[in-house]
Amino acid sequence: RSELYFRAPSCSKALSPRELRASSIGALVTVQGIVTRASEVRPLLRVATYSCDQCGAETYQPIESPTFTPLLLCPSRECQTNRSGGRLYLQSRGSKFTKFQELRIQEHSDQVPVGHLPRSLSLHLSGANTRQAQPGDHVRVTGTFLPLLRAGFRQVTQGLLSETFLEGHHLAKVNKSEEEEGEGAELSPEELQEITGTEEDFYGKLAASIAPEIFGHEDVKKSLLLLLVGGVERSPRGMRIRGNINICLMGDPGVAKSQLLCYIDRLAPRSQYTTGRGSSGVGLTAAVLRDPRSGELVLEGGALVLADRGVCCIDEFDKMLEGDRVAVHEALEQQSVAVAKAGVTASLNARCAVLAAANPALGRFDPRRSLEHNLQLPAALLSRFDLLWLLQDRPQRDRDLRLAQHITYVHQHCREPPSSFRPLDMKLMR
């Protein structure tokens, strides 16, 4: 028997897991998100075949729900006439199985409101849709939004509430730029004129539009623009040369390192923001967890894996524990995460640009000591960053006066001070 799958039209808008409502149950919807967890592919029973121990007749039972009750008595005419009470036994070789995999997707970071937790959704895939995605992939799934019915004791404890899942019919990877994801959306001539204008310093105008509320740091903003744009990945003779750059902002407290990280996190279409003390090694790379539903081991990606084809911002990089900091070495250089835990061996993509911020170990930067001694970071880790910015708070009367006037204007008017050009909007920058 052939399998029938439905695919939504190309003009349909992809929803996020947060936008699914009770009215969507039973409807064909398209959901877009990032894969955070993937289970192993297991056989799923579709048609159960039984054989009678008395007459030898075969009985077939289609399985349409997650749970079913096995048949016990033979319904054949011979057993009914003789009243022999034939018993049915399940024949695994004659039954029909299909491939089944469960994924869990999470909404993008730019779709999460401030102060809210990201919503997630379970996907049930079968047949040709299995083994199509792994943790860190951005996918668009079309399927039927259904409630998950429980049985036995779990049904009694659950009451009137029920979990939901998406029965996937079509899965497609979305590993392109944000403009290509928007069904080929292009900039209008007015928007191109606003970006280019009549100024010759086009590169400087784009860089100055990054965090215009922050005073100074022109060269740092130019490097952050290059980090957002990225480069071309090359593989000459099998050797992989990454196209993304890694930047580390180091310096005294109060020089807007964290504010730059927060702005890049909001500006990048795909980004993950975390802190050194609030993240563990497995939280940054990948973890092997036990699925509470099936009891099997599943692979769940960390911040670097979820930021694939994007930017991963790590604040307070110097506060990380030594054991957790070592886990970042492979992702910084090879842009991959190798996992070999509890019998699960896999390699996940972490093709992201890393933007880190670190403070000196003694509070302020001491120019008499080396960079390694000031930050208390090993040289093996610092060598994996392409750009190391040292931001110092040196007392200068004229500069400090302009900085104070800039900060006062921002606090009074809640916007950047007037300048020779108008900074570009964040949506237009994306």
From TrEMBL:
One BP term from GO: DNA replication initiation
Domain MCM C-terminal AAA(+) ATPase: 202-407
Protein family according to the UniProt entry: Belongs to the MCM family.
Domain of life of the native organism: Eukaryota
TM stretches of this protein: none
The keyword Cell cycle belongs to this UniProt entry's keyword annotation: yes
Keyword tags: ATP-binding, Cell cycle, DNA replication, DNA-binding, Helicase, Hydrolase, Nucleotide-binding, Nucleus
GO annotations of cellular component type: MCM complex; nucleus
Subcellular location, record wording: Nucleus
Alphabetized Gene3D superfamilies for the sequence: 2.20.28.10, Nucleic acid-binding proteins, P-loop containing nucleotide triphosphate hydrolases
Residues making up the signal peptide according to the UniProt record: none
Catalytic reaction list: ATP + H2O = ADP + phosphate + H(+)
Protein's UniProt name: DNA replication licensing factor MCM7
Organism from which the protein derives: Cettia cetti
Main function: Acts as component of the MCM2-7 complex (MCM complex) which is the replicative helicase essential for 'once per cell cycle' DNA replication initiation and elongation in eukaryotic cells. The active ATPase sites in the MCM2-7 ring are formed through the interaction surfaces of two neighboring subunits such that a critical structure of a conserved arginine finger motif is provided in trans relative to the ATP-binding site of the Walker A box of the adjacent subunit. The six ATPase active sites, however, are likely to contribute differentially to the complex helicase activity.
EC number: 3.6.4.12
A Pfam entry, by short name: MCM
Principal subcellular localization: nucleus
